[in-house]
Write a structure and sequence with these properties.
This protein has about 240 residues and is an alpha/beta fold. The protein has two domains: about 100 residues, Elongation Factor Tu (Ef-tu), domain 3 (Beta Barrel), CATH 2.40.30; about 120 residues, Rossmann fold, CATH 3.40.50.80. Helices cover about 25% and strands about 35% of the residues. The protein contains five helices and twelve strands. The protein has a six-stranded antiparallel β-sheet, covered by helices on one side. A six-stranded parallel β-sheet has the order 10-9-8-7-11-12, sandwiched between helices. The longest helix is centred in the last third of the chain and has 14 residues. The protein is globular, with a radius of gyration of 18 Å. The mean pLDDT is about 95.
Length: about 240
């Protein structure tokens, strides 16, 4: 039986265009592995008795004292309306979990490549902080793709981590940048082999929309020759 908990919102922060960070209290008995997700009960705003569940990656690391979610609002979306209009500091939410196998293998020792687009970067906050707390040896590259500068968030967070951990690097690519953008341009599919020319020798994690994850999975296995056991994919809408 999967345990369920009642958690209380402590922080709601707008990070970027349509992207919020939500923090919640962490029950003492709740534990999880970095990269896992939970199910939240989402009531219909017009009929609170009508409840559906939605899956959200845990952006907080297992050792942190709060539960963190990254929520991208989709216009007209049931969960988006609920988060935007009804969830804030003091709100209580029912949570079940954890679930999922988008986690680190305990005996893996290869260098890492994390690829995420939009709110698909959420589990990497957990994975990166967990990895760097445990060790400081493997090379870890995080490739983060969004549409434009308006969609960027957590940039300073990961840059600060890189400053204190030389084995970690953040790479940002924009698909529709302004003329002032000086970083990578284009989709993550094009940038991944540039920042990790040794990709065939790495453990690769991919998280984001299903079309991107499907294409990258095929590239990893068929063109870049990543071993199947070293490829982890999480697609969502």
């Amino acid at each position: 039986m999967v345990p369920d908990y009642t958690i209380t919102c402590t922080r709601k922060l707008l990070l970027a265009r349509n992207v919020y960070e939500f923090a919640f209290t962490k029950p003492k008995e709740f534990s999880f592995k970095a990269g896992q997700f939970v199910l939240l009960d989402v009531p219909l705003l017009d009929d609170p008795s009508d409840i559906q569940t939605r899956a959200y990656s845990l952006a907080s690391a297992p050792h942190e004292r709060e539960i963190l979610f990254l929520i991208k609002l989709i216009p007209g979306g049931r969960a988006s309306r609920w988060f935007e209009e009804s969830v804030g500091p003091g709100s209580q939410v029912r949570m079940r979990g954890p679930f999922g196998a988008f986690v680190l293998h305990p005996h893996a020792r290869k260098d890492m490549l994390f690829i995420g687009t939009g709110s698909g970067i959420a589990p990497y906050r957990s994975l990166v902080l967990h990895l760097l707390q445990k060790e400081n040896k493997r090379t870890i590259d995080l490739l983060f793709g969004v549409q434009s500068e308006q969609d960027l968030f957590w940039r300073s967070l990961f840059q600060d981590i890189a400053l204190s951990h030389p084995n970690f690097s953040l790479h940002i690519t924009l698909s529709e940048p302004s003329d002032l953008w000086e970083g990578h341009r284009g989709r993550v599919q094009a940038i991944a082999p540039i920042i990790a020319p040794d990709i065939a020798k790495r453990t690769v994690f991919i998280c984001g929309n299903p079309e991107m994850t499907k294409e990258l999975k095929e590239l990893c296995l068929n063109e870049w020759k990543v071993e199947k056991k070293d490829l982890h994919v999480e697609g969502y809408i």
